[in-house]
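Summary for the funding panel

The consortium committed to producing paired sequence-structure records for every protein in the target list. Below we show the first two records in order, beginning with the earlier of the two.
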Amino acid sequence: MGKGSLVKELFFNIKTTGALTFSSKSLVNKMLSFADFSEATLIVELGGGDGSITKGIVERMRPDAKLLVFEINEHFCKNLEAQFTQPNVKIVCDSAEKLDDYLNGNKADLILSSLPFSLIPKDVRTRIIEKSSAFLHDKGRFIQILYAYSLKYHLAPYFKQIKTTFTLKNFPPTLIMICER
């Protein structure tokens, strides 16, 4: 699937993609700079999209680590499956609210998310955040890119510490929240 086809899908399904454009390389690098990949053996990405963040994760993760990438858009899933054929990368074409169904009781070291929480119904958003917190190792991190600071108040009951940073090197400029349990 070509980049043009992915861009078309981005615009036709704005309610599920939640973005005007894909994440810039600068945003990906800044987001992933807050993740410690040296000890991470189980990594989860919520909202694989075009694979720009997935690519950055794969480049940084240990060879023995496993990556689960959740994406609900079938076109994006097919593209991700074609891009990432490594045996330790699994594309999950399902909702992030079913995270626990795929972890088999294991906890993730890192959960990296670009989900458009402001467009996701509150009850679904709450389940995703609850499960992300519950299935994250005590020393793990949940890192979310977003465009509205108000999400911090929705994350606060589930994470003890939330740091926020900002990057102008993306369109639109983007917040990054680094959450710890």
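The next record, for a separate protein in the list, is shown here:
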Amino acid sequence: MSIAQNPLSVEVTLPREDVALVTVEGHLDLDTATDLQAHLANQLHHGRRHFLLDLSAVPFMDSSGMNIILRVYQEARGLPGSVHVIAPTPAVRRVLDLTGVSLTVPISEKVDEALELVDRQQLSEGSQD
């Protein structure tokens, strides 16, 4: 399938200064994954440490999309930061579960739940200093 048939829409909002909410819509595959990667790299460049990936409007994701999620997860961990997947569609959730990504990257049903996890992580980081 070409990009013209299944364009990817990526919208970034900032619920907090160091948190990027990345809302993805469309098929996340070999043809479109680089677009998502560019948005995430831009947010990393601008100092975002926590990424909330809303995949509620992604009907299909292949290994290219999964690799992007894992790549940003690795980069964010080194900051330290985090990546959270929000409300994946059943097909995307199945890919995340079958590949074990859901064991590594937290999955939340709502943005507020993921923000609470970010807060808890920041508190535990602060107590380790």
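Regarding this second record: The longest helix spans residues 111-128. The longest strand covers residues 9-16.
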